[in-house]
Amino acid sequence: MDPLIFIIGYITPYIAFFTLIIGLIYRVLRWLSVPVPFRLPVAPAPITYSGVLKRMSLDLLTFRSLLKGNKKLWLGGYVFHVALAITLISHIINVYFHDLWSVIGYGWYEAVLYSGIFFLATLAFLLVRRLVLPNVSYISKTSDYVILILLITIVFLGVYMRSFGLVDVASVGSYMYSLLTFNPIPPPENIWFITHYVLAQILFIYIPFSKVSHLIGWILSTTRNMRNITRWRRHVNPWNYPVEVITWEEYYKKFKEELETIGPGGERR
């Protein structure tokens, strides 16, 4: 076997996967370790846990805040995330449940192809938007363009392979399943698949260190996941440190004694 194919097929997949998992766990632990000095949920905020769950679920499924702010961006972003979800689900079916297509019908299989086309179109829209709109281009960093170009390349190769049948989906599924069972078999030596596969591994490694992991940050955002109960329960600031305090009576007595020691002209007696 070619040494490069061996590295790509047997070693780097595990490096990419464990980097993704460990990196996301590390980021979650870092976010959870940040103290919350005060309770400040975005109004109107619910006062019950069920209300918080309902609010976050509605925002997650409909992108409600983005819809209120920018309808064009909402349309592109919403289609992008729906197509991404369909793509991930289809990959899981292809890899681990490829016999399921015969049950649910190959019409759904074709629908996945069209979702990939929409996926590619929305990525192109987001890239053009960053390039064309001056205010968006001004705040964009190199990393914003890199992730979009990387995703466009990965999705384009996937759509291209699926459209023209350039790779055997069954052999890919068998190979991926062998990785899951830690008993890998040689990957399909197909240049289109290998390129798509290597770029996907790069994406996996990049995700924990990029904005792509914003979903976890959004879920852990205290402006969204906290209840508005400041009138009923005091929020203790974890940054508080012990300080010496005195009562009003003690302060008044001390202040009165100091006044009695000061003469009419301001000099101390």
What coarse outline follows from CA principal-axis ratios?
A: elongated
Examine the secondary-structure arrangement and name the CATH architecture. Answer: Up-down Bundle
Q: Could you report the average pLDDT, rounded to the nearest whole number?
A: 86
Query: What oligomeric assembly is this protein in?
Result: single chain
Measure the end-to-end span. Answer: 98 Å
Major sheet details: none
Per CATH, the superfamily is: Transmembrane di-heme cytochromes, Chain C
Element-by-element helix/strand order: HHHHHHHHHHHHH
Q: Percent of residues in helical segments? A: 55-70%
Domain module tally: 1
The portion of residues forming beta strands comes to under 5%
Structure class: mainly alpha
CATH class identity: Mainly Alpha
How do the helices and strands line up, and which of them pair or pack?
Layout: H1 3-33, H2 49-62, H3 64-69, H4 71-96, H5 101-104, H6 106-132, H7 134-139, H8 142-164, H9 169-180, H10 191-206, H11 214-219, H12 222-225, H13 248-260
Helix pairs in contact: 1-10, 4-6, 6-8, 8-10
Provide a short characterization of the protein structure:
By secondary structure, the protein is an all-alpha fold. It is about 70% helix and about 0% strand.
Structure description:
This protein is mainly alpha-helical and 269 residues long. The protein has a single domain (3-244), classed as Transmembrane di-heme cytochromes, Chain C (Fumarate Reductase Cytochrome B subunit, Up-down Bundle). Helices cover 70% and strands 0% of the residues. The chain has 13 helices and no strands. It has helices at 3-33, 49-62, 64-69, 71-96, 101-104, 106-132, 134-139, 142-164, 169-180, 191-206, 214-219, 222-225, 248-260. It starts with a helix and ends in a 9-residue tail after the last helix. The mean pLDDT is 86.
